[in-house]
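BUG: 3D viewer hangs when loading the predicted structure for this chain

Environment: internal workstation, default settings.
Expected: structure renders.
Actual: progress bar stalls at 90%.

Input used:
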Amino acid sequence: MYSTLRSCFPCRSCRQEALSEGCSHCWNRFISWIRMRTGPEPTETYGLEKNCPQDQSGRPTGGRRFKLPKLWGGQRPQNQAVVNPTATTDGHHSPKQEERKPVVLTVEQILDGQAIQHLCEASKQLIEREERLFDGIMETDSLTQHAEEVDKLAVDYKNLEGLVLQTLRLSLGEVNVEALTSAVNAINQEMDQDQRWKKRNRSSPPWRQSDLKKLHDSTLRSLVEDRMDNPSTPPANQVEESSLHADIHSMGRQLKEDLLCVVRVVQGCYPPEQDICNFYARLYHQTFSSRLRNIADFVLEHKDCTFLMRWVNEYYPQILQKPELAAVIDADALGKLLPEEMLKPLEEQYLSKQQDELNKYISHVLVEAEQKWRTGEEPTREDGCFVSHVAYDIIQLINGMVSSAEKVVGDRHKAQKITCQLKDLMQSFQTFHNTIMKQNEPNSKPVIKANLGCIAQFTEVLNNRSHLFQEDVQRNCLQILSHMKESAHTYLLKPVHEALKPQYNKLGTNDWLNNSLFEKLLDSIENELQDLQGSIQSCHQELIGQLHQEVTAEYLRKLLKGKVKLKDKELQHKAYETVKDNAESLQDFFGKMGSKEDWLNEILTKIAEVLKLQELPAIQMEVVSLGTAFPDLSEKHVSALLKLKTNISKADRRMVKETLSDNLRETGAVANRPFFSKVQCF
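Structure tokens produced before the viewer hung:
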């Protein structure tokens, strides 16, 4: 028997082509093969005698005192562990022998749950058994003679499948990394074996009808659903929340913790190409989405509606944006937790409620301010300036509500709908503002000065925080505020101009050329400025700048009225010097008062140049230069100016005007700082 089977065991140790009787390695391999073939307890067994002496290799000594095992008959054994025997001298193994001692667990040991971390090895052994079995019956094409082996293999595969799925169910939480890695490798081995069977022109074994990949996916889906339905207890600071809020918080927290576990631990148990992180992310996204859809189907109160939308558009995206998760999870591919058809009514409900709250608050603020004015109360002073908190309070609320709404609905343009009625509210503010000026109560001026600060604050917000407003709302509100500021300036400056009227009437007369009337005008203006104090610094500077423009315009209006006739070159030169000196004095005076309108000096200087020039081409060039800088200069203004120079003919005046018109038409210039349109001298 031994010599018959030698050819089945080529040996690498003794380098014999067949089994060698003198090689201990060959002997041990032969004995192991015999045991594998006969099983641990064969019906009829022949083995080594118990008391037979052996050498260090485990081979019997003192002759061949052994019997060969019975090789035919009885049940064919299953795979089991192969352990190379090692000799001992003093009852202990040598260190080298300990290191070299290979231990291969049997399928039975692994499937009994003794070594679940070796599921991959069990799968490998079962596949080998499967291949040997079916290779052996290919010629007969019949499983009848091997029914017991087939049944045993099917049972082992079923046990392996159960242990693999059991391991997958423990993937999260306290993960046994070694066991999970082995289970995943076992699944992949079985999937590869499935593919090999598909390439063969024959039916696969019955245990290969189940798809381990589908079982893997469904098991993880069930695991995720169970963990989301039974999340851990909420922390102490959330115990007082409503049950709905607590449930959503708990699910969201469970999702975050589990995805971090997947990235930190589970990911390493899978091959990179399986992209397990995104697979888990999809499972959690779908499960969380399903739970939130069920909640959104009910009519929610404003608080619950807001909370749900914040999870959809703010909290959940923040979880996926955590660096550890964002590095491996494609958040864009997941989409939103709720579909658009479910989000839209929630958004409308939320934005409508926010809009109503904003409108009520602004109306309340304006009513309260009007009541204070009607009772004669003056605005409070800060650093000597009248201030109102109307704009500040409204701006803070608008900024907070729109910024919060942007996070809740996840869209800036949608959040801007909250302020869509701001134009109407601003018109209410304008109506209140006009009423104050019209009735002109003792406390009206202080209130208007305080309102200038509000107008400035509103204007700044509309210009610099345009993301809070829709474009048409921004444009309309700025227009209303501009009109309010102009009317406030007119209201505050009107008494000043009335006081200066006697001085204005002397401008443009012969007395103006011969006497220093302009200094008296400046003295009168300085006396009136005290009554303009009380606005915050920036608003006061704008008010002084407006007065600077209006005084300059009134000066030029009186000059162009034509009460003084400049008949010759000498008078024209005198007028040139007077206008130039007045322009410098005016600029110096208002500059010290805080005006930033230094561009007004250029107008009077160019007017003075026109009065001085004698040659027609030079006059034409200067008028064109003035018109280019200030395109609202009209032919009527030029005509009035040239009429002061009585030595210029009508034809020459017409030529100058035509030259100006042609130039303005060619350039198509538009007045960025209109001035001459305010000078009515006709």
